[in-house]
Amino acid sequence: MKNFNKNQKERVEVMALFGYEMTPCQPLSFRRQGEEETEVTELLRTQIRFAGGVALHIFDVLVGRETKRLEFNSGNLSWHLTQ
């Protein structure tokens, strides 16, 4: 995986499972532009933040031994990797 600044957001494609048991959304894998798909090992934490009438769904996930954060923007339906 390529490195980037922690404060930078990178748009990614995400495969997610919606409406599963008690978790309304669970990211299963993501793919950065020009790279292979990366599997999410474990969902650690979820939270929702509201900004300007848009809900931002935040998922802290484990990828191997690394913690990553995926964000889903409900306004434009885009996914971003933020760390």
Report on this structure.
The protein has 83 residues and is mostly beta strands. The chain is built from no helices and seven strands. It has strands at residues 10-20, 23-31, 37-39, 42-51, 54-63, 66-73, 78-81. The protein has a seven-stranded antiparallel sheet with strand order 3-2-1-7-6-5-4, with no helix packed on it. It is globular. The N and C termini lie close together (12 Å). The model has no long low-confidence stretch (mean pLDDT 89).
Quick synopsis:
This protein is mainly β and 83 residues long. The chain is built from no helices and 7 strands. The radius of gyration is 12 Å and the shape is globular.
pLDDT below 50 for ≥5 consecutive residues: which ranges? none
User: How many strands, what sense, and barrel or not for the largest sheet?
Assistant: 7 strands, antiparallel
Report the portion of residues in β strands: over 45%
In what order do the strands lie side by side in the largest sheet?
A: 3-2-1-7-6-5-4
* Mean pLDDT score: 89
Structural class: mainly beta
Cα radius of gyration in angstroms: 12 Å
Order of helices and strands: EEEEEEE
Cα shape: globular
Helix content: under 10%
**Tally of individual helices:** 0
Query: Termini distance?
Result: 12 Å
Number of strands: 7
